[in-house]
Amino acid sequence: MLKAIASGIVLLSASFLAVAQSSPAAFDPDAKVFRLDGGNVSYVFGVNPRGELQQLYWGGRLANTDHFGKAEPMREWASFDSSYTNTPQEYAGWGAGLFVEPAIKVTFADGTRDLVLHYDSHEKTENGVDVVLKDIKRNFFVTLHYSIDPESGILARSATIENHEALSATVEQAAAAAWSLPAAHYTLNYLTGRWAGEWTLTQEKLNPGARVLESRRGSTSHQANPWFVIQAGDSQEESGEVWFGALAWSGAWRITVEQDQLDAVRVTGGFNPFDFGYVLHPGQSLETPVFYAGYSAHGLGGASRLLHHFEIEHILPRRVGTGPHAAPKPRPVIFNSWEATEMNVSDAGQMALAEKAAALGVDRFVMDDGWFGQRKTDHAGLGDWYVNPEKFPHGLKPLIDKVHSLNMDFGLWVEPEMVNPDSDLYRKHPDWVLNFPGRPRSEERTQLVLNLARPDVRAYVLGFLDKLLTENEIAFLKWDYNRNWSEPGWDQLPPLEQKKVYVEFTRNLYAILAELKRRHPKVELESCSGGGGRVDLGILKYADEVWPSDNTDPFDRLTQQDGFTYAYTPQVMMAWVTDTPHWLNKRTTSLSYRMLSSMQGSLGIGANISKWTDEEAATAKRLIASYHEVQPTIVQGDLYRLISPRNGSEFSATQTVNREKSQSVVFAFIHSTQEGRTFPTLKLKGLDPAAQYALTSIEGQAGPGTPETASGAWWMNHGLNMGEDFRGDFQAAAFRLDRK
Ligand code: GLA
């Protein structure tokens, strides 16, 4: 991303004086003020007279003629509130009198635990600026990397921490960045959940104290996602100021949102400091993940639209085309075998499903768990990545050939970082798992976590995946990860260095993914972790899509999809249509309701389609064909959450508009009609008011009197009515509008 972003930085320093003389007060030769402008955003920070780097402004874009004077630290408020802690520092070391969350905390070899970072130098980069900070006494450096996306104004920040002392130092806490907001009334939004219940948008007023969002689990987690939005007091879904951020890290992480004793807010995020310790020997350095952050004056909806486009254009791999709006291809419509056959896969059974899938218009056939080793249940086989000879006596080739003959490509499930104790791999290498020697090894789903931080484990995982992809024509891997860490020991290293596992494991995961992509550039990837346990901007640099949840109930999914899209684009949001009654909730829904729920994201079929009636197959085929026609608008357009399904809402509706404003797609859902209420008028958004748009039904009927064609102004001001017949339980309708 860093390379993709053209420079948006204006450096207001003494050297700038010669070029722009319009506001002399802004160019005090003693003041060093950095300003980044992109999209509708300006971000400004400066070096205060003590030498600390201090934030001066983050918000709506300022005029080029606006200038900032010298950064002035906040004063000591009382003898209990030092100036050092009150000043909104860009990256405060734990030292001096810091009481708020530090960006970095270090213990030096002589026991000193005081780190005070002052400005040392800076260098303009292609994309922004690198600012070097140095401890006031020691040869300990932190380089802060800043860049800004000229289009969205989304900032990318990270830090490189370097020890040039004669002895080693241990980094006990290291954030990617700290973001500051002045004292005001704010609402915090974050995403929480659990297995089969991810993506709950949680909203609360910010109060004094710290709200800690985190995973201590070694990976991103279902329970909290590394994303936040802070809304100004009066902000809503489509209005008001919001500041948002997302951390690009798939290991244990923490974001602390803290309102200090003077009501100012600081958001500090990076490696989770819990159980953290990274020893830097002389000359060594530690690179933090990137913390992205942005600003919108258009509420939560504005924030998510900025993030979606940024993810599509700067984060996701495999963008096609060139220019600022180069985007990945919409995802193929897949069939996945998991809910149809679970681990009971076989040559004949999968071929029969492939025939049925192809007849529906599916593009990709994915065989899930069960094809390898001695995998009959989840008690055995993980780690042994050879094709099970009883289920597939001639290897995978006959099935793959069959899938190709049906004009689909082939995908396969793997879970590379795990091992069952009942496997050849574990019998040969019991030392390869995370463990503390002599202590129990806690199993979850009868599996243990391989220590990917070990070079030999990394080589094994890369080796078997490379072989699998070389020997078979595989277009796609569903990369699963079905438990969290326990007993995270790494006994190859000296005791004080073992906690490096929190960094090296995830770095090796990224390195394997990068190398696989280099060797097999066409192979696409899904990040799955028992559903949405590993979704973040770090993994999305490698993964083309994610599995948001093992919960495929179409009604539950509406709320999950609502929550998911606050942070992540529908382009990556895989959504399968599965069987009814649903295995989790025992809820019965119509096929068309299930299809429309999944069509809000990247559509897949995960049902046992061998049991479908001809009528069901015809419905699915028709809707898959309709979906293919409008998919780019749905997954890459501007998303408006017109009515949220959250908080037990009776109704919900979304609308997406493509960038050209030439097409829009509307989805409307009824949970359960009560007291005969009619569906609310949908006042559409984001259309060109002067253009004419024709309305076509994808499923369901608009209300009587709805024009076939009307102006964008009509659809946005008068709105779309569904009519009185749109009532009942679990009802769904969808429409497209095309510019004439
Ligand atoms: C996880 C995934 C499922 C499926 C199973 C297979 O739970 O989320 O989609 O692949 O593993 O064991």
Tell me about this structure:
With 740 residues, this protein is an alpha+beta fold. The protein has 13 helices and 38 strands. Strand 6 (117-124) and strand 7 form a beta hairpin. Helix 11 runs parallel beside helix 12 (614-636). The chain is globular, with a radius of gyration of 27 Å. It starts with 8 loop residues before the first strand and ends with a strand. Residues 1-29 have low confidence and may be disordered.
Key traits:
ten-stranded antiparallel sheet; 740 residues; alpha+beta; binds alpha-D-galactopyranose; disordered N terminus; globular
- How many helices? 13
By DSSP, the count of extended strands is 38
CA gyration radius, whole angstroms:
27 Å
- Which overall shape is indicated by the principal axes computed on the Cα atoms? globular
Uncertain spans, ≥5 residues at pLDDT below 50? 1-29
The mean pLDDT is: 94
Helices, strands, pairings?
Elements: E1 9-12, H1 14-17, E2 32-38, E3 41-47, E4 53-60, H2 83-86, E5 104-108, E6 117-124, E7 128-135, E8 140-148, E9 155-163, E10 169-181, E11 186-192, E12 200-205, E13 209-215, E14 227-232, E15 242-248, E16 253-259, E17 265-271, E18 278-280, E19 285-287, E20 290-296, H3 299-315, E21 319-320, E22 327-328, E23 334-336, H4 338-341, H5 347-360, E24 364-367, H6 397-405, E25 409-414, E26 418-419, H7 424-428, E27 448-449, H8 455-471, E28 476-479, H9 501-519, E29 524-527, E30 545-546, H10 554-567, E31 574-577, H11 591-599, E32 602-605, H12 614-636, E33 638-643, E34 651-657, E35 663-672, E36 692-699, E37 709-711, H13 712-718, E38 729-739
Parallel strand pairs: 23-24, 23-32, 24-25, 25-28, 28-29, 29-30, 31-32
Antiparallel strand pairs: 1-2, 2-3, 3-4, 5-10, 6-7, 7-8, 8-9, 9-19, 9-20, 10-17, 10-18, 11-12, 11-14, 13-16, 14-15, 15-20, 16-17, 21-22, 26-27, 33-34, 34-35, 35-38, 36-37, 36-38
Helix pairs in contact: 5-6, 8-9, 10-11, 11-12
Alpha-D-galactopyranose binds near residues 338, 369, 480 and 482.
